């Protein structure tokens, strides 16, 4: 195994042809990891421009902007487009930025241009453009929300899992799902009543959930290079270090996020004050993985099991060094066949689509 094979349930158009399987080699993994790192560093710099004395509020804004930046890959264009003709109602992208503006305009110094104006009657070419340009200027949002379209789409190629078939799940939707599940579970445990400490813990948990698997591209890269298993949790902690969150959030909060990311599979290793958050993160990760990785279906399909002479149940239902070693022992031609067959199996189950030859 020299490349990561991404299974495409919906065929992807690449260089003039539709593909069921796309390959990501080590240079591209490095490039995508760097792209994610630079994207989040730009978020950190944006928050620093309007830094509040309350670290929990800084962390909340950081989380909001990271989520928005990651969604940029899912909804193109997410950022508002200002057209010549007046619009009497917003589209979904506009609504997100209206919410962002309303939440943070006092901190950015942007004048409130929406005062006493019903949402439906906003003159989008004038009022919307006024606040949008100021918000972009204050937070330098163009670095976050206006990457080249190709770069944003490239990030969406990253799978949540390196195993053919399970790699049909994508990393960015997985991160967003884990964050949503973890946040909801924490709020439910507190019965919706959060004091100041609870709010800070919620934001720490949310940050760790959004960031918990961002070490995967670099870890996979190093695993493929050395042909030895490398923990993505370890590289996730290194990813957190690279963001220099201490300057924005203080050492205690940034360390808590790092420890949660580093131990998101092993919450019992966390100190007492983080163990509850770690267990919520672990459960949210498991729940999201159950949703986006169809291991039960794939491990039992006879068409898949005939592709390679290895027990797929052990490959799809377990993780760690032993499982990785089995995958690494397979050549890329076998993995390509497995990935393409998995795409066919999943399509037949969900859409009854034919395989792309």
Automatic annotation (TrEMBL):
InterPro entries: HD_domain. Residues 185-286 form the HD domain. It comes from the Archaea. Gene3D superfamilies: Hypothetical protein af1432. It holds the Pfam family HD. This is HD domain-containing protein. It comes from Candidatus Marsarchaeota G1 archaeon OSP_D. The lineage of its organism: Archaea, Candidatus Marsarchaeota, Candidatus Marsarchaeota group 1.
């Amino acid at each position: 195994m020299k490349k990561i094979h991404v299974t495409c349930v919906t065929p992807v158009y690449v260089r003039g042809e539709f593909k069921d399987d796309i390959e990501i080699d080590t240079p591209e993994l490095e490039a995508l990891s760097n792209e994610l790192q630079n994207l989040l560093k730009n978020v950190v710099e944006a928050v620093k421009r309007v830094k509040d004395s309350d670290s929990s509020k800084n962390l909340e804004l950081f989380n909001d902007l990271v989520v928005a930046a990651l969604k940029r890959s899912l909804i193109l264009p997410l950022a508002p487009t200002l057209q010549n003709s007046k619009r009497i109602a917003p589209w979904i992208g506009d609504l997100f930025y209206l919410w962002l503006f309303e939440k943070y305009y006092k901190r950015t110094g942007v004048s409130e241009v929406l005062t006493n104006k019903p949402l439906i009657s906003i003159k989008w070419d004038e009022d919307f453009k006024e606040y949008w340009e100021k918000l972009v200027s204050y937070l330098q949002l163009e670095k976050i929300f206006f990457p080249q379209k190709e770069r944003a789409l490239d990030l969406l190629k990253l799978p949540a899992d390196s195993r053919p078939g399970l790699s049909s799940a994508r990393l960015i939707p997985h991160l967003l799902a884990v964050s949503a599940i973890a946040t909801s579970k924490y709020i439910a445990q507190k019965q919706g009543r959060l004091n100041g400490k609870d709010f800070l813990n919620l934001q720490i948990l949310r940050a760790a959930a959004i960031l918990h698997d961002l070490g995967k591209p670099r870890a996979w890269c190093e695993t493929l290079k050395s042909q030895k298993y490398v923990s993505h949790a370890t590289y996730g902690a290194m990813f957190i270090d690279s963001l220099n969150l201490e300057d924005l959030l203080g050492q205690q909060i940034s360390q808590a996020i790092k420890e949660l990311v580093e131990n998101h599979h092993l919450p019992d290793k966390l100190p007492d004050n983080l163990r509850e958050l770690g267990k919520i993160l672990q459960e949210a990760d498991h729940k999201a993985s159950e949703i986006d990785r169809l291991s039960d279906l794939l491990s039992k399909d006879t068409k898949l099991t005939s592709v390679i002479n290895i027990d797929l149940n052990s490959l799809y239902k377990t993780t760690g060094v032993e499982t990785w070693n089995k995958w690494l022992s397979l050549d890329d031609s076998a993995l390509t066949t497995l990935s393409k067959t998995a795409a066919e199996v999943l399509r037949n189950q969900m859409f009854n689509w034919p395989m792309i030859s």
